Amino acid sequence: MNTRLQRIVVACACALGTVMAAPALAQDGPPACPAGARADFHVHVKGDLTLDEALRRSRESGITYGIAINGGLGFPIDTDAGLEAFLAEMRGRPVFTAFQGEGREWVRLFSRATLEKFDYVFTDAMTWTDDRGRRMRLWIEDEVGTIADAERFMDQLVDRATTIFATEPIDLYVNPTYVPDQLAARYDALWTPARMRRLVDGLAANGIAVEINNRRRIPNAAFIRMAKQAGVKLACGTNNAGAADLGRNEYCAEVTRALDLRPEDFWCPPADGRKAVQRRPLAR
Ligand SMILES: [Zn+2]
Known about the structure:
Helices cover 36% and strands 15% of the residues.
């Protein structure tokens, strides 16, 4: 839209007393960056949450969504073709598009040419192979087994997470500091300042932002404070399994107030040319 036309549109909207909602309903590029808890960068269209319902909730709440598709080994989507179909479905929608890399194999399954069409790429440290060679998804108890030595487990988790930060081209680390349910009651004690420091330093060194996750209420305030002080940017996200998980960024808003987080502490999806998949090689 040219500047003159923009002025006319704005003037008309004001004359009608209309509050212009952002992001625009039809657009070519991604929405403008919303501040703090005005964005939920980790929404999945799955379970009983349809795309139409997600868009309706976004409009109603004023929270801009980043709609993420998962891809990786053993997932329904494990090629570029699946990602391209998702991108086509999202075209023109008032959302950010996100790719969630699953497992550690994703860097070899998809091309940069397709990945860089997403507004951003993220992953978590919930799937990895332990020192005995067992590939585990941390949210599946049978794969994790009984953790006999929690300290050793935590050291491996920190090691795997920091290796991900150093080797995988991601913009955002999600489900941060997640531990299996059997350790959840000891979360604060197991996430020692030294362990948190290693994660924060790894994120800072690689220019990766960190999610404040509403559904699991992680990371804790101590981690978020440390991340902020290190200049690691923060992003609100939910990682919903269905419609019921999707709230209004309650935990993120709570932490924002408690820690007096400012707009400049929050992350924005990178500009084209600055995306992690454009700055860093896919596989090392
Ligand atoms: Zn997710």
